[in-house]
Amino acid sequence: MDFIEPVMNIVKDVVPIAKKYFNYQIRHNDYVNEFKEKQKQLKRRRQDVEEELHAQLTKPGKIAKKEVQAWLEKADQETAEEVIEDLIYKGGFLTYIFSSRKLDERTQSLTEGIFKQGEKYTSADESLVVDTPSTEYWATVFEKKQERLKHQKEDIEANLKTQRMQPGKIARKEVEEWLEKAGQQIGIKVEDLISQGECSSPSNLKRKIEESKQILEQGKEFTNAGVILVRDDHSIKGFPLLVEKYSGRDDIQEEILEWLKGDKVARIAVLGMGGVGKTTIMKNVHNQLLIESKFENVIWVTVSKDFNITVQQKMKFDILQFQKKIASSLKLEREPDHENETKLAALISQRLGQSSFLLILDDVWEPFSLEDVGISNPVGNNGCKLVLTTRSKDVARAMDCNVIHVNPLPHEEALELFSEKIGSDVFSDGKIKRDIEPFLKQILQKCDGVPLAIVTVAKSMKGKLLPRHWKLALSEFSKFESIIDCLKFSYECLEPQCQECFLYCALYPEDAKIRKEELIEYWIEEGPIYKEGKTREAMNWKGHDILDKLVDNCLLQSVKHSDFGECVSMHDLLREMALEISPQFLVKAGIALEKLPEEHEWRENLLKVSLMGNHITEIPSSMPSPKCPMLTTLLLSGNKISTIPEAFFEHMLGLKILDLSYNRQLSRLPSSISKLEKLTTLLLLGCKSLREVPALSNLVGLKKLDLSDTSIEELPQGLNMLTNLKYLGLVGRLSETLDEPLQNLSKLQHLLVTANRHAETKFKWETIGIWGKLQNLEKLHLDYLHNLNMVFGEVGAIAESASLPAGTFSSLQDISVWRCDKIKKLCSVRWLGYLQKLQTVEVGYCDQLEEIIGSESKEGEKVALPNLERLELADLPLLKTIYSGSLICDSIKKIEISGSKHIESVFWSGFNLLPNLEYLFLSCLKNLKSVFDEEGFGLSPRVPPTSFFSLKEIRVTDCGQLKKVFSSRWLLCYFQSLETIEVSSCSQMEELISSSAHEEEKVTLPKLERLQLTELPLLKTICSSSSVLICDSIQSLTIYHCEKLKRIPLNFPLLDNAQSSHPPSLIPKEIRVFPKKWWESLEWDHPNAKDILFPFCDFRPWWEYIH
Predict the structure, then answer these.
(1) What family name appears in the similarity comment (predicted)?
(2) What is the structure's pLDDT at 311?
């Protein structure tokens, strides 16, 4: 019977609570009436207060107290009829209970709160008014608003300036309008208002204050993190294309330019076989015309074989894709009309009709109607011209073009080109070595004068110096019957690993700009560069090494993408060769397919299938599973697939890589994916409609799983079974903690957690115990996690335990945290002991971040990050310091800091040494007073002479409080390796290098090659009037808008006899100055300096030079 007493105790506790809740149900109507009565009493009290207030306001010079106005507004809200309606629930027994309880609580709240507060306002002795503020008071308020508006304007202008550094970008119209409005408002001065008699009444000032408030409110839209302030500049002709100039084509380029500059010819076809150099010629023509004034727009579009429009049923679709390419080149804003061929043609025609243009279409395979596309008919006198490159005479004839033939190079020019590319090793006294010459000439003959073959073969033979090497190569060449065969020779000279990587590039669409990182990731997961036990970083570097070899051997080309930066591309002839070598590839990438290939095309011996970048919308349920048991790679990314039949993967059980990325309509996956037990890579990033994934527990061989940028809210079942996983990309919508599943993923090397900008993020990890399990983690990337308060746990979590498990973060090299707007610090100083392998730290757009490393004492302790090489801190408005104590980072090579309002000094006495720092970039640091806290450092023995010894480049922009960058004593002691100094848009900068009267007159920077000073309105001196800056290595000098600078104290080696001379390595046109009038007013130490340097000066403004 021992249980009776505990039960009785529970009953005693429960009965009063139960009685109370039954009371709520029985007395529901009473609670309603009580609340209504209290509302009536409050309403009467409000009327009394309002009447008394009106009486007191009859006295002149009085206004209502703010707290009285606030009480009246609150009383209005509490007496509204909607309040009682919201509190009364309609429903059953439980609904009455909860409604009664809320009514009871609200009645008590009214009684004790606002009703009681109103008592004092009904007292006869209580004053409800204050004296009307004086004109001086409102003037002060107005000036404070003006100051706030000024700071807001400066912040927006700084962000705008950074964004405008992107090529071809100008301010959005609404941003320009706001800046103009804010500037006009800031320009209003109180003293002007007084002199104009507008301050006689406070109401005028109050109106001005309200105007400032409205502008401030409007400006908030442009201060949000990540806001885009720029748009494409349609006035820009275009941007230079990367191109390698080959010998022997200058005459053709001159002929094309002559025709384009005249009025007789409006359509030109550059005709020649593949690889003969048509594209290279036209790239050089394109770049030349960018700097001339003949055309207002120079547009380049690569058409490629994939825009074949000979089949009538494909006509509309192909023209639409072609139109989209032109629209992209014209920077037309993306609109729904871009899916309509007729409307898009009208938009293109309208844009092109606004200016003269040259349209260059590279690699045209079939004729088409210019009118259907929206291209105005180019004729001799309308300023519009068309050039196309093609292999087909029929195309040239059908497009009514004047033809310029590009023939193979004659022997002498071919030999010259071959010699350029192979280098000097095979030459002796300027001639080809005798024992090599006969073999070389016969090999060259096989290249048939085709530049692509000549260059590719020359690169393959580079470094082969013995006659037997050339004899062996000739024996191979003797079998060749075509240019493709010649190109195969270069391929066969590669190591097997490089060959496999090269062939993989053919899986991309023709002429695609391939992201290097994406390609290397494929190589890692597919196997060419994968090696068990190697770190991901090591494999990544190996991938870059292979890319460099392929580019050096001219099998790939380096290109730039406007969004992705450095990319590579594959010449169409080389791609054709790669696909010929790979009969087990099925590649139909980027050719606007709407359906999967026919059943008979899915051969049993297929190894790789690439259908990426098409418009496939569905995989029909009637289609049987392709019988491809050997298939290892299936690339379906960038389509419009919405559903996949359950049985589709049934006969693909050897599949290793499945890429379904960026199928935005894909809402579910077939359960048959769970049977792909050999799968090593499953890529689903960008499948925005995807909400769930089948069980993954069978996919124990999976090494890479990317679910980022999907709508998945629950972790896939069986994730904790994927013990071989090395790369995991997750979405921030996840409502679960990651603690349990991550504990089993001990091989994980790369963890990416990101969310959509506007998505609700629920992601969290509850404990720090999981980190001890991730001893192989190399990279951690977090983005848009709005609810994340910490990265590495709270300080207290470590304090409670003696330490984290041994090996925690023992491999972590890269931390990247972006747009996590609740984080106040990256980690506590207690964590640094576990982060000793860190090489890269990137933190950006975290609005609440105040410090990178949190110290637990005021002074902080001495700590080290011995392997840190790169630190990037971007747009952290509240950032005050990196660390308040002493931080040792001997290995750091690059520091970038931008967008902070509180940092006053970048390097303080606690930032020790930095002997390996090479690059320092600082921008938009509004309160920066000094780059180097020289008083804190001093020149004492504790600052070794190796400090900053390796610094090569320093860039400082938009640091409004900075008055100098260096002192001459620091330059002499620490900065002797400087190669580049760039300072721009620092409104308070007065001197670049400060010095004292007693210091030396000569400041030497022996390695300085580039000095750029722009937009420095207060700059008076580069160094003191008695000093001279000696920099004999100078190659480029740029000075724009530094009108107060009267002297350039650079010691150029000018000749006393006034013969033309300039710095030894100075490149003509690399003295860039603006305006010209300022240059002419400069004072020079040497009497002939101005005249001698004048021929090397470029007086164009910077925007013309860039364009």
Answers:
(1) Belongs to the disease resistance NB-LRR family.
(2) 40
Distance CA 541, CA 829 (A): 31
**Model-level pTM?**
0.69
Judge whether 723 and 701 are in contact, CB under 8 Å: no
| Residues 6 or more apart whose Cβ sits within 8 Å of residue 226 | 757, 819, 845
pLDDT at 161: 74
Residue 511 backbone class (left: φ over 0; alpha: ψ -120 to 50; beta: rest) = left
CB 715 within 8 A of CB 692: no
634 membership: H or E segment, kind and range: strand 633-635
Residue 361, judged by CB atoms within 10 A of its CB (0-12, 13-18, 19+), counts as buried
Burial class (CB in 10 A: 0-12, 13-18, 19+), 1050: buried
CB atoms within 10 A of CB 650: 15
Give me the amino acid identity at 154.
E
Give me the pLDDT at residue 681, please: 94
611 has pLDDT over 90: yes
Residue 310 banded pLDDT, cuts 50, 70, 90: very low
Quote the tokens at residue 856: 């637990």
CA distances from residue 451 to 221, 457, 580, 828 in whole angstroms, order as listed = 54, 10, 21, 59
How would you classify residue 1015: left for phi > 0, otherwise alpha for psi between -120 and 50, otherwise beta? left
The residue type at 918: E
Question: How many whole angstroms separate alpha carbon 915 and alpha carbon 935?
Answer: 19
The bridge status of strand 431-432 relative to strand 427-428 is antiparallel
Give the C-alpha separation, 457 to 444, whole Å: 9
pLDDT of residue 20: 54
Strands (E), 137-280: 169-171, 230-232, 267-271
pLDDT for the residue numbered 795: 40
Contact 1055, 1093 (CB under 8 A): no
**In 3-state terms, what secondary structure has residue 1050?**
strand
- 907, 937 contact by CB (below 8 A): yes
CA-based nearest residue to 567, from 511, 515, 497, 503? 515
- pLDDT bucket at 707, cuts 50 / 70 / 90: very high
- Token pair listed for 919: 């690059």
Token reading at 676: 């792909």
Q: Cα separation of 725 and 700, whole Å?
A: 8
Query: Cβ(348)–Cβ(288) under 8 Å?
Result: no
- Helix, strand, coil percent content, the chain, rounded in steps of 5: 35, 15, 45
Give the pLDDT of residue 555.
Answer: 85
CA nearest neighbour of 591 among 575, 578, 607? 575
Distance separating alpha carbons of residues 831 and 425, to the nearest angstrom: 54
Q: Which two tokens stand for residue 502?
A: 């090269």
Of residues 502, 486, 614, 496, the one with CA closest to residue 548: 502
Residue 267 structure tokens:
């359509």
pLDDT tens sequence across 102-133 = 777 777 877 777 877 777 777 767 787 776 66
- What lies within 8 Å, CB to CB, of 10 at 6+ separation is none
Rounded distance between C-alpha atoms, residue 271 and residue 407, angstroms: 9
